[in-house]
Amino acid sequence: MNFVRKLSKRYRKKTPTYESDVIIEPSPVRPLFRLLGSNEREEVLSPLPLCAIFQVIDELTFFEQIHLISLSGDIEAYLTNKYKHIKRMRVIKQNLDTATKVGDGWQRHYKAFVAVRFVRDTVEIVIDSSWTVADLNAMSKAMDLFHSWIEFIELDAPVAEAYLVHLSKLDLYEWFSFQSYLKISGAYNDRVNLYCEASRELTNYWPKVKEVTLYTVVELSHHLGRLYNYGIDGRWFMSRESLEKITLVVINYKGGHKHLPMNMNAYRCWFGSAGFSWRYSTEYVEDKDPTSRWNNIFTF
Predict the structure, then answer these.
(1) Which of 10, 28, 124, 282 has a C-alpha 20 to 30 A away from that of 186?
(2) Domain boundaries in the chain?
(3) Residue in 102, 84, 215, 218 with CA at minimum distance from that of residue 160
(4) pLDDT digits (tens, 9 = 90+) for 111-169
């Protein structure tokens, strides 16, 4: 696994570097943040009133905030209340510099190649197209915060698979190492994958979700076909009572690809489309934008 990590050029970099001129200013309370996350956190937390701790948390970036959730149930409750107004989540896989040039308000992770921004009731998360396992962990932890109340979800197909691996009993490092090994050995096959035992611990993991939209192109449809490998039944992952619409959007489909129908069928079997009847639909969309993320595709 260490060998696979070292194949990445970014593994040897201590902090991310970006092509853009965006400067990530260090948080004014970063030293206290580091102390709160150290082995001395009990001594630090005990003399401080919660109101003071919450004021410190408000000065941190979003990624620094969620890093502190494990320290205290009070911190978790505070952040839950702080972001409870977020009802929509959009997560895409794209070159980070390109994605963050669109709009403002982006917050970059202090180590991983992941960025987030909040627009009214929507959270947008971008993970770099040449992701690493550290990026996947950062993305997954950001998504975890909203799972109990999010209502509208949009995901790219690779993101959907990676997040399901994160929630399964399969170790994310093992999955990433396996895929990387297949890639560098020349044995990569989109039909080859790891399996893990079933888990029923995630019943109604998205209990409030009303609409789920997945985006894919033909070259990435194998991510949909592998969702059933991870021991999490889609019918229990989402609530039948609250779910109103499931949409699969296929970008720039020209026809004639034999694997797409198989992958789409596997995806429908995973979440039990027969039980959702008219609530499931497939849309075929043409994207002519030359800067679109679909024009720079990484198969893993």
Answers:
(1) 10
(2) 2-19+84-295
(3) 215
(4) 899 999 999 999 999 999 989 999 999 999 999 999 999 999 999 999 999 999 898 88
pLDDT in tens, 174-183: 888 877 777 7
Amino acid in position 276: F
Structure tokens at 65: 């905030």
Structure tokens belonging to residue 12: 């040897």
CB 225 within 8 A of CB 266: yes
Specify which residues 280 forms β-bridges with.
Answer: 246
